[in-house]
Design brief:
The protein is globular, with a radius of gyration of 22 Å. It is an alpha/beta fold. About 40% of the residues lie in helices and about 25% in strands. The strands form 4 sheets. The protein has an 8-stranded mixed beta barrel with strand order 7-8-10-11-12-13-14-15. It has 11 helices and 16 strands. The protein folds into 2 domains: about 10-95, Reverse transcriptase/Diguanylate cyclase domain (Alpha-Beta Plaits), CATH 3.30.70.270; about 110-340, TIM Barrel (Alpha-Beta Barrel), CATH 3.20.20.450.
Length: about 350
């Protein structure tokens, strides 16, 4: 990117897989030329450790001053445009237009709404247990957040991407940590919490986790999505988290681009096999083979496995035969308020 970006431009990394490029004193024609150069540069595979890697792009664009007169307006509209580009598929770009103004207003309104729910402590702690495949005994639980709004309880999954891009995720996770402290002494089974990319990159995450660890009588689990392990800086941070006597689980394993051989270099204790594999393994032999390979390799590396999204007896039976350690899903338990775990086991 630096090679093809004008010298007086600005490049910053804003997310694990996102960059911000600011072009000064430019024009629409120059922007179009730059985008074409960027796509052309990435069409060719990158060679890393003698392996060929294809990287695809999505680009969202906003223009000054027609799309905004300050950094916040321009960034918000560029993010909206990027979202439109992603919906179109790989290697696409989208320029913000006035007819997207409604989307921006919705973006702002949702941020204000979620900030209000957070202030009113409308985020609720739920938990979904996971169970041993050998005897269906409860072995631990993943802490999940739900939103209490207008008398309804809704999953946070629908707004998690928005929380991350808007920056609210750090405040939500701070709330989560404080709420967990109220229950941990009364919950007898191991708990796991999800750590976002924003939190993992935060300079305060280690001190927050150290403080939370002091409330636990056992090493709780941090669940981190697989794609974050592609970052060297993330692996270094994860190693520091493990030094706090905290266990690490790879969440949604199989959805990223890492090879199975990469597992041996990861500082993890648990692999959570993504639900997309579990749903397909009964009907697709190749997928079943992948699930079996993940479980077998994990056992050789002394890593536990949890199958996500198990919803019926057939899925459970196959996973037990494959010697997966644990299952999680509606078949044995739906998410329930964390109070349901008190004094359990």
């Amino acid at each position: 990117m630096k090679k093809i970006t004008p010298k007086d431009s600005f490049i910053a990394k804003t997310e694990t897989d996102e960059f911000l490029v600011i072009l000064f004193k430019t024009s629409k024609n120059k922007i179009a030329s730059f985008i074409m150069d960027l796509f052309a540069h990435f069409y060719e595979p990158f060679i890393v450790n003698e392996k060929s890697i294809i990287i695809t792009l999505n680009i969202g664009i906003s223009l000054y001053p027609q799309d905004g007169t300050n950094d916040e307006e321009l960034l918000t509209k560029a993010i909206v445009a990027l979202g439109k580009a992603k919906k179109e598929g790989e290697n696409t770009f989208f320029v913000f237009e006035e007819n997207l103004e409604k989307d921006v207003r919705n973006h702002i309104s949702l941020k204000e709404q979620l900030a209000k729910i957070l202030k009113e402590r409308g985020f609720l702690l739920f938990a979904q247990p996971y169970f041993l495949t050998t005897n269906k005994e409860i072995s631990g639980a993943e802490i999940l957040l739900r939103i209490s709004h207008n008398g309804n309880i809704e999953s946070i999954a629908n707004v998690i991407e928005f929380l991350e891009t808007s920056g609210l995720i750090l405040k939500v996770e701070d709330y989560l940590f404080e709420e967990i402290k109220k229950f941990v002494k009364n919950v007898r089974i191991p708990l796991s919490i999800n750590i976002s990319s924003k939190s993992l990159a935060s300079p305060d995450i280690l001190s927050k986790l150290r403080e939370l660890r002091e409330y636990f009588d056992y090493p709780f689990i941090c669940e981190i999505t697989e794609r974050l392990f592609m970052e060297k800086s993330a692996i270094e941070k994860v190693n520091k988290i493990k030094e706090l006597d905290i266990k690490i689980a790879i969440d949604d394993f199989g959805t990223g681009y890492s090879s199975l051989s990469y597992i041996e270099n990861l500082p993890v204790d648990i692999i959570k096999i993504d639900i997309s594999f579990i749903k397909r393994m009964l009907n697709e032999p190749r997928v079943l083979a992948i699930v079996q390979t993940i479980i077998d390799l994990a056992k050789k590396l002394n890593i536990k496995t949890i199958a996500e999204g198990v919803e019926n007896e057939d899925e459970f039976r196959i996973l037990r035969l494959l010697m997966c350690d644990y299952v999680q899903g509606y078949y044995l338990s739906k998410p329930a308020p964390i109070e349901s775990l008190i004094n359990l086991k």
